[in-house]
Amino acid sequence: MHETIVDINSISQLHELYGAGKAKHPLITVIDEETSRIDRHKAVGYRLGLYTIFCKKSSGAFKYGQSHYDFSEGSLMFAAPGQVMSSSNDLSKEKGWALFFHPDLVNTGTLGSQIRDYSFFHYEINEALHLSDEEQATVVLCVKNIRSEYLKNVDKHTNRLIQNNLELLLSYCTRFYDKQFYTREKVYNDAIQKFEKLLGAYFLEETLISSGPPSVTYLASEMNLSPNYLSDLLHRFTGKTALEHIHLQVLDIAKSLLWGSNQSVSEIAYKLGYEHPSHFSRLFKSKTGYSPSEYRHLN
Questions:
Q1: Average pLDDT over residues 200-227
Q2: Cβ contacts of 155 within 8 Å, gap of 6 or more
Q3: Integer Cα distance of 172 and 260 in angstroms
Q4: By C-alpha distance, which of 106, 61, 108 is closest to 85?
Q5: CA–CA separation, 24 vs 135, rounded Å?
Q6: Are 108 and 159 in contact (CB under 8 A)?
């Protein structure tokens, strides 16, 4: 049976879905998951036009996009607008809370230009943030401050204070994700080595000419990671994103061919998977300061 998809694009629609009464603020809300009246036995997925932060602890699987995750240990999960979420039929009553906010809330302030920097909103569900008791207390305090602010009588300071507390919450989550990366250094070092092997092997494939240079999405998929998570992992441990690593590999091979063979620039570009040699030449010059032809004649 196909899952029915229901679009939820406003806080008021969300409150109706949860049976949470009238919303106290049109652009942001915090809902206690234990009070939810959603019928979890229906084959229904909900596509939210909202930013979401879930703090859940339950027994059973929760579906996010195409992935399932067991929240029995308690985790913090983030979702950007457009993701589809649903629960399995065997999911018990959930504990925890969920913070939802509409993009319009942050578009009126500085957070609107920064929201894309919080890449964890685009992580997969298996890349959730696992908090210590102390970290949970910090997060909950931020959420309580946000909720307290929108429950008060709205005045000229309300939205600014909500945005400030929301930005503080996201800053703490960034810190805690950094800590999670480094406390699992051995696991992530293994992941980096796997990435490097995948990248190296890709450039040895005979299909490279027809398939083109590797994409971050392809490499992340091969590692069962989201593209954003892979890039953040690499950047934290190597100082370079996944795309920068791909470009470095292209440059290393190109330099070797420019100095060690008589192949033309176009032939080298095609060999590296570039359908249009001009795209390869543009990348090469942007990274080295020289065109491929100029680089070939440096020595």
A1: 86
A2: none
A3: 50
A4: 61
A5: 27
A6: yes
State the average pLDDT over residues 187-204: 89
- Say if strands 84-87 and 95-101 run parallel, antiparallel, or are unpaired: unpaired
3-state secondary structure labels for all residues of 283-299: HHHHHHCCCHHHHHCCC
How many residues are there in the chain? 299
Phi then psi for residue 244, to 5 deg, are -65, -35
Q: Which are the contacts of 296, defined by CB distance < 8 A and separation ≥ 6?
A: 258, 259, 265
Mean pLDDT across 37-45: 61
| Bridge pairing between strands 4-8 and 44-48 | parallel
Helix axes 133-151, 158-183, angle to 10 degrees: 170
Strands (E), the chain: 4-8, 28-32, 44-48, 51-57, 61-64, 67-70, 75-79, 84-87, 95-101
CB-count burial class (<10 Å; 0-12, 13-18, 19+) for 50: buried
User: In this structure, what token pair is assigned to residue 184?
Assistant: 């699992």
Do the strands 61-64 and 84-87 form a parallel or antiparallel pair, or are they unpaired? antiparallel
Instruction: Say how far apart CA 240 and CA 246 lie, in whole Å.
Output: 10
* Euclidean distance between CA atoms 275 and 273, whole angstroms: 6
pTM strictly above 0.90 = no
Query: Contact at 8 Å (CB) between 8 and 47?
Result: yes
